[in-house]
């Protein structure tokens, strides 16, 4: 008997011969639904389920898409619209024209300004990346003493305001009245040796100081992910430390270095504070500074400001595209394997003390000297005197603390600093949850739009916000700053929340659902509690960025919504360096309180938040 014959003999009778009652209910339901003879009464109930489910499924992405469009895309649209206007939108004499775009894109002064801006951004990116790579290698791959302390010291400038640092360096090394220049001239008896921080070299130097932490964070994470077996093989074949670093380590982290380069390039091309503070005396042309001057100096030209903003936007967009490509390439170079390993630390031996001194020298330039200069300027009558015989006074501090505009700016700063991160985290977490857990349609598009502000400099984004809300009730109020800051810092909150969600095993949420918990209860009682450390980190980080922001705030503030960063700029603009230093110290105190609360009270890992 063949196998086919045996199977045929074991086959049950045909289903057609079975009575109708013996047909399972499930199969009967399927057959009834599929047949065209279904009753007219049940048809609306069955056909109405699909549209209703689709409606609920699309409500979330459509709502998020509208919010992101208003926050992110609409300001960019209005910025380009403003570049086509001869005057503000509210001006009835204005008309559409290409004159502003032609002036910015096709005339020699602005092409020269473009060349200067690209050169400065490229130079800062090269220097900051090179130094950041060296510091990352020292701290991540060597036995340098007090590694955690060294890492915190390198990252300290990230949590302080570069604008305040620029004011401090202006006090330290201005060509005529700088503290360092006065001390050197009195010590040597001549002014032949002086430092001019108000020059192109000075601007490059200060920018590099405050962008090194970004390169350090990007490269150090990649250095810690290298499988040490590659370097061990190099050592076994007779290569030394230097040759192994050049032939093995650096090629592996090269994509991370490129990512750091393009990210710093994008940040620099839109930087306003440092070149605005230091570049006045040297008249260094810079696109971001000219955006502000077009709206702050007579004759006011909003159209030209928007046109310059579009130029910076295209440059930043190209930089972000290269950054994304380099970041994707960096993921292909991941060498972490499933097997455990122990990172081999290179022994510095006699170079341990010089390595610590190198890190200390960076901290001295970026943190210690600038804030000593701020304290010196805040408590003296003028800064051109010798430090030892300086006319010390408390009048500057008393005048600032009792000024009505200072009290108002402190309350505005705290209000923006508390509301912005709270709303930013709520929107970022909801967006990440919708994309990662709910799997809403259009998740990739939502992800791209949410991350889009990373490539838009603050002053460029503020230009779009200005054109968008110029005729609305929130213009000139504190809420326009909140809207601008939420849109600008949403990528940080969203990315941290997204990373935290990826690290939570869905089995925990499924267990909650199997125990009878609703979807909302599972999200609040399980998912959000597990995300709490990451969300606190994101909140502290957005708080710090909101308090220290000056590029976007300076275009959107008025007498009713002034914040500390803009008040410090106003004092400096009036020539009162002492009061600007006092306000800078107040802003620094608020930032440090936020860092201390996050680090020691809430137990937040600020290094991971950054």
Biggest beta sheet attributes: none
Helix content: over 70%
What structural class do the secondary elements suggest? Answer: mainly alpha
| Rg over CA atoms | 30 Å
SSE string, helix = H, strand = E? HHHHHHHHHHHHHHHHHHHHHHHHHH
User: Total helix count?
Assistant: 26
Number of extended strands: 0
Outline = globular
Mean pLDDT figure? 81
Task: Note the gap between the termini.
Answer: 75 Å
Poorly predicted runs of 5 or more residues: 1-50, 334-340
Q: What is the strand content?
A: under 5%
What does this structure look like?
- This protein is mainly alpha-helical and 610 residues long.
- Helices cover 71% and strands 0% of the residues.
- The chain is built from 26 helices and no strands.
- The N and C termini lie far apart (75 Å).
- The N terminus is likely disordered.
Record the SSE blueprint.
Layout: H1 3-10, H2 25-34, H3 43-83, H4 99-106, H5 108-141, H6 147-155, H7 162-173, H8 179-188, H9 200-223, H10 228-236, H11 241-269, H12 273-278, H13 287-296, H14 302-332, H15 352-378, H16 395-401, H17 404-436, H18 443-451, H19 458-468, H20 478-502, H21 506-514, H22 519-548, H23 553-556, H24 564-573, H25 577-601, H26 606-609
Helix pairs in contact: 3-14, 3-18, 3-19, 4-5, 4-14, 5-9, 5-11, 7-15, 7-25, 9-11, 10-11, 11-14, 13-14, 14-19, 15-25, 16-25, 17-18, 17-20, 17-22, 19-20, 20-22, 21-22, 22-25, 24-25
